[in-house]
Design brief:
Length: 325
């Protein structure tokens, strides 16, 4: 239905302008905030960048939860830095979305009321320290697979935000893999924890790439507009192909009996996630959806006095300036 809305919005734009716009996209000329753009392009960018920003912010919760329980001071410092990076990523992305005419407050309100989505992965719990390793390795690994191509996305502010974000995400993925190495090479109990984390987080990580291409609503139009550079299944396949050898190196087993190398396609055949579970999580019924939204709402309410104080200060300064003029 959303696709239909975008399509009809796009077609109400002046056909000549639409043609010129598409020609610029085809020539890889970046679209900048003051350029003319179809309404559908603007709306779908707000949706995608907004969801992405929310994912970075909500994504702090499952990891922030482990800062106080990190096993060493060094691990604590690294995790703290990573979680702070995610907050920074959220801010770059909200700033990019603001250039499209939506305020950060509007986007935040839509997150807090449950109207806007964030990545399904963050509705799963991090139960033990190995999960923090698996999140860095798999979740940040999947995020990078999706986000590296987005550095070439057609909207200038989004593309530039992605360049910076990707640099930091690579560090995040490495810190996760480093934790997994320690666990996988540790005691029997630690190795079991690492395997258990992989078992639980493998399929939710595959879900991060979105529904299968047949069920993707936005891919066709968004790829034509170069908002999205690859289909969901293309990136999922690349992720599987990259991750299987990494699991082998760790001596861990991907929880998929159908995983086999397919010489002809030059990639692995693998089992799809349970798509009914995916759509259920999107509807709000995942293991942690309620907790995540409650935590974000509480943080917003608890921060009200800071926002009020800052606004009062800004108002006072503005009034003083007007009086002096
Ligand atoms: N979680 C939640 N919602 C998802 C989803 C997921 N994993 N995958 C798809 N969806 C939603 C879409 O938003 C869309 O919903 P809507 O129409 O109500 O907005 C619907 O499912 C249909 O999916 P489509 O394939 O048609 O949607 P898209 O074309 O938008 O593709 C996407 C989905 C691949 C996630 C794309 O939006 C994208 O590339 N986004 C940018 C990257 C991003 O948001 N990443 C978040 C990852 S987490 C992260 O970055 C934090 C880091 O620290 C780990």
């Amino acid at each position: 239905m959303y696709a239909q809305m975008i399509k009809s919005e796009a077609t109400t734009d002046d056909p000549e302008k639409l043609k010129e716009f598409q020609a610029r996209i085809d020539d890889d000329i970046k679209v900048e905030p003051r350029d003319w753009m179809p309404e559908g392009y603007r709306k779908t960018l707000i949706r995608q960048i907004g969801q992405h920003a929310h994912s970075e912010i909500v994504g702090q919760l499952p990891e922030g939860n482990w800062i106080t329980r990190a096993p060493t001071l060094e691990r604590k410092m690294i995790l703290l830095a990573k979680v702070q990076d995610e907050a920074g990523h959220g801010l770059y992305l909200y700033a990019a979305a603001e250039t499209l005419g939506v305020s950060r407050d509007d986007l935040t309100e839509q997150l807090l009321s449950g109207k806007m989505k964030y990545s399904s992965i963050f509705n799963y719990a991090t139960l033990n320290w190995a999960d923090i390793g698996a999140v860095g390795w798999l979740v940040d690994g999947a995020a990078i697979m999706n986000q590296v191509p987005l550095q070439r996305t057609s909207y200038g502010p989004y593309s530039r935000a992605m360049i910076r974000i990707c640099k930091e995400e690579s560090f995040h993925q490495r810190q996760g893999y480093d934790i997994m190495m320690k666990m996988a090479q540790g005691t029997e109990a630690q190795k079991k924890m690492a395997q258990d984390a992989l078992n639980r987080l493998w399929y939710p990580s595959l879900m991060m790439f979105g529904p299968s291409d047949a069920d993707s609503v936005h891919s066709t139009q968004n790829m034509a507009w170069k908002i999205k550079m690859n289909t969901n299944d293309e990136l999922r396949q690349k992720f599987v192909d990259q991750t299987v050898p990494q699991a082998e190196y760790l001596g861990l087993t991907i929880p998929d009996e159908n995983l086999t190398w397919n010489e002809k396609k030059g990639g692995y055949d693998y089992s799809d996630p349970d798509w009914s579970e995916f759509f259920d999580v999107l509807k709000g019924n995942g293991p942690c959806n309620v907790d995540r939204l409650e935590a974000r709402n509480k943080a917003w309410d608890d921060g009200a006095w800071v926002r009020d104080g800052l606004m009062a200060h800004a108002e006072k300064k503005r009034a003083a300036k007007t009086a002096a003029e």
